[in-house]
Each structure stands twice: as C-alpha cells, then as structure tokens.
Design a protein that fits this description.
about 200 residues; two-stranded antiparallel sheet; about 70% helix; about 0% strand; NADH dehydrogenase (ubiquinone) activity
C-alpha cells in the first residue's frame, strides 16, 4: 500500500514546488504514473488478501476501488484545467491539493481493515469534497448544496457509528482479520436486519 500512498502524498509538494506554467503537466503526468502503478494490485490479489499491516490490506473487492480512485485523479485534472483558467495560481494549487488529499483519504478508506478507521477516513473525505463543492462549484446554489451534503452525510453516518460500537461490544473487535477468530458471533435475530440497515444508512444516503 505504501507503493501507492507515498507517491500520492508526494503529489502535494510536487504541486506547490512546480512552476506555475508546468504545474498541471507535472501533477497530471505523475498521477498517471501512480494510476499505472496501482494496476499491480490486480495481479497481486487474485482471490486472496494482500496484507500490508493489521490496519491496511487489499483484496479482490478493494483493489478495483483503489485502482478506480487513482485513475479518477488524472481524469479530474484533465477535465478541470479549462474551468480553472481564470483562477489565481494559488487557488489552482489549493484545488489540486484538495483533489490529491481526497485521493489519499479514499485509498486509505478502501484498504482499511479496522471498521472504526474506515469510518473516520470515510468521514474525513467530506472535508476536501465540501471545500471543492463550495469553492469551485459551477452552480450558484453550491453553498446550499455543500451544506445539505454535509448534514445529510453526517446524520446518515450516525447510525453507522452506533452499529459499529454495538458490534465492537458484542464481538470485541472491529478488525476484518480478527473477525474469524472471535468467539462471540452475533445472535441470529430480527435485530440483525436493523443492524444491517444502520450500517448501510450512510452509504444509501
């Protein structure tokens, strides 16, 4: 995972240290290289799990999501260059930094083994997304859209947090790698449907 996260983090100093006329070319080409590098995950994860640590790993489900995330950044950079022409150079760099930060948080979200860490990283993606919507949104209602986006997502994620705390109290762990080793399985009752709905509420919203 460090093979993808560390190069993604290096996009931040590359953005701010690049000359103004070369900034878009440098960041876009470098992000394309990261996208090509992420394709390795497809071959390393046939149907097994590639463990990087107790907190981060990838499998056949998370690998395509990480690859999709790394490919979205250069495509967003290509699509937004024309839209950002009238912005100042500092605003352009802030915008690119928000996109890079969003990519880093999403990669860590999709590779998180600990459900609480997944929840924190999932909520952390709201910050750069909210800044991008409210500052560089095309529509005049972008402030209202950002406000609705923030509150709907936060309110929808509260049932998810409650469900995670409940699962932690029942099983003793929220780590995917340790779930098979727990001796306290959830009771097969009708309340499991409510628990499932609470876990899905944030994503449904």
């Amino acid at each position: 995972m460090l093979k993808i996260i560390l190069p993604s983090i290096m996009l931040l100093p590359l953005t701010w240290l690049s000359k103004n006329k070369n900034m878009w070319i440098n960041v876009t080409s470098y992000s394309f290289m990261i996208s090509l590098l992420s394709a390795i995950l497809l071959w390393q994860n046939d149907m097994s799990t590639l463990n990087f640590s107790l907190l981060f790993s990838t499998d056949s489900l998370s690998s395509p999501l990480i690859i999709l995330t790394t490919w979205l950044l250069p495509l967003m950079l290509l699509a937004s260059q024309n839209h950002m022409k009238k912005e100042s150079e500092q605003n352009k760099k802030i915008y690119v930094s928000m996109l890079v930060t969003l990519q880093i948080l999403l990669i860590m979200t999709f590779s998180a083994n600990e459900l609480i860490m997944f929840y924190i990283l999932f909520e952390a993606t709201l910050i750069p997304t909210l800044i991008i919507i409210t500052r560089w949104g095309n529509q005049t209602e972008r402030l209202n859209a950002g406000l609705y986006f923030l509150f709907y997502t936060l309110i929808g994620s509260i049932p998810l947090l409650i469900a995670l705390i409940y699962i932690q109290n029942i099983t003793g762990t929220l780590n995917f790698l340790l779930f098979p080793l727990t001796f306290m399985p959830l009771n097969q009752t009708w309340s499991n449907s409510i628990l499932w709905l609470a876990c899905m509420m944030a994503f449904l919203i």
